[in-house]
Amino acid sequence: PQRFNLVKRSDKGFVKAFRWIAANGKPMHAIILENANSATVRLTGNEKTLQVFDCWGNSRALPMVDGEAKMQVNRLPIYVEGNLVPDAGVVAYPEEILVRSFEAPFINPSFAQGLDQWHGGLRQFGTITHHREGEIDFARVQLVDRPKHFIGIGTRSSVEIDKVFAKLKPGQVLKANVSCKVRLDNIKGRGITLTCDFLKAGHKGRFGGNEHAYVAGSSDWKQLQFTCNVLPGTTGLWIAINVSPGTIGNFDLDEIAVKLEIWQKPGY
Fold first, then answer.
1. How far apart are CA 5 and CA 67, in angstroms?
2. Residue 113 contacts by C-beta under 8 Å, 6 or more apart in sequence?
3. What's the CA gap between 157 and 176, in Å, rounded?
4. Closest to 235 (Cα-Cα) out of 180, 168, 158, 173
5. Exposure string for 79-117, b = 16+ CB within 10 A, e = fewer
6. Is residue 78 within 8 Å of 21, Cβ to Cβ?
7. What residues pair up with 185 in beta bridges, in sequence order?
8. How far is CA 183 from the centre of its chain?
């Protein structure tokens, strides 16, 4: 299938469309509505009647009047058989716009107060200690045995995510830009990863999250960073460094940070 330029043909959101030639030799189009629950889509072509199929294969005839037809679509793809005419130009989908960003506060994100507010379960597999080099505070994790399951250390942001969600306008999404610095010393196995978990109401349990790619080997200080969408219903963020099963070696950790970003989806 090739992209087909119907991007601006809906009265809400925007349209992603694709065209290919079906087994019967007729043009077929997939029409997908983005950033709206329902909308009217305008089609142009040189057919008298189009055949419209839903996701389950049910079909209906859609007459064209003076080379134009309109149909209601929702979030499920619609398939249209017939010779449609696209808009001129390259297919370019609208992009999200950054509305604003702000730092999510943490207590002791750079270990200036030792290991205060940091929690986890290295258990018999390792130790975590506070270190200082010049003016730099950091935590050192030494893995003395290969863990049989995931272990790690983490801390919770004091920002109340549910209050941030309450202020979002229609079409806005909340993202978390998560980062930290690590220094690796002969990490063997799958390695370690930076994670961001979403906390439920009352911070009783987690229901999803995201993570950086695993890192291993040896390195000087380097930054791990990723951005993820924060799920609605989140009340807090738990940021952690997790160690995968079978990993051995040492690493240093510093400068945990989360920047919350409010993005506006196009079409609203």
1. 17
2. 107
3. 12
4. 158
5. bbbbebebeeeeeeeeeeeeeeeeebebeebbbeeeeee
6. no
7. 250
8. 26
What SS3 state is found at 58?
Answer: coil
CA 234 to chain centre: 14
DSSP 157: -
At 97, the amino acid letter reads: I
Residues in the chain, how many? 268
Residue 16 has which token pair? 């992603």
Q: Read off the tokens for 34.
A: 């983005």
For residue 88, the one-letter residue type is: A
Task: Note down pLDDT in tens along the chain; length 268 residues.
Answer: 899 999 999 998 899 999 999 999 999 999 999 988 999 999 999 999 999 999 999 999 999 999 999 999 998 999 999 999 999 999 999 889 999 999 999 889 999 999 998 887 787 888 999 999 999 999 999 998 988 888 888 998 888 898 999 999 988 999 999 999 999 999 999 999 999 999 887 656 777 788 899 999 999 999 999 999 999 989 999 999 999 999 999 999 999 999 999 999 886 7
CA distance 54 to 69: 17
| DSSP β-ladder status, 151-156 and 49-53 | unpaired
- Residue whose token pair is 């030792």: 114
Q: Which residues pair with 215 in a beta bridge?
A: 192
79: CB partners within 8 A, 6+ apart: 28, 29, 30, 31, 52, 53, 54
How far lies 236's CA from each of 97, 104, 115, 241, 264, in Å?
Answer: 24, 10, 20, 17, 22
